[in-house]
Amino acid sequence: MLKYNKNMIDCLKSIEISHQDFLDKIMRIWPEFFEIKGFVLLKKNKDNLENLDEKKILSAYYDKTGFEASYNEFRIEDYFEWCIGKPIEGLAMAVKLSEIWECKLKRDFPSYKFHIIIGFDGKYTTIRFHKIREEEDCWIELDDLDGYKDESIAVRIVE
User: Fold this and answer.
1) Alpha carbon distance 152, 148 (integer Å)
2) What is the pLDDT of residue 25?
3) Edge-to-edge, what's the strand order for the sheet holding 152-158?
4) Can you give the residue range of the structural domain that contains 55?
């Protein structure tokens, strides 16, 4: 519960967050996820996916999992400039974000399972997720993570 006085109410009414970059960063820390046509997607500021063409997606990505993993990916350094030139801090940020995303995905979609994948190439860190589908392969081979020689990989399993 949050309680405040009239002065605070007036201050809160006057707040105008106009810096889109700031809003975008906050949405990555505590993101909004939505489901459309069987896809679970990370909400991005200018998304308009009402006319999502599933046939086009499947022809380009081969399956729903591939599309989700691609769509839901972002590079840490693109949103958190303080991580540029500090690759281990970017990796640490991604690990923390994966914990937050796990909590949010469990809350928003309790009947689904997900993989949250962190990739680190020594300079940049990416994080992405996809829903687990029994009829499709996972985006990354869990039984052969050491087979990914060009980057470090971590997968958070959300059940």
Assistant:
1) 7
2) 58
3) 74-75, 125-131, 114-120, 152-158
4) 20-158
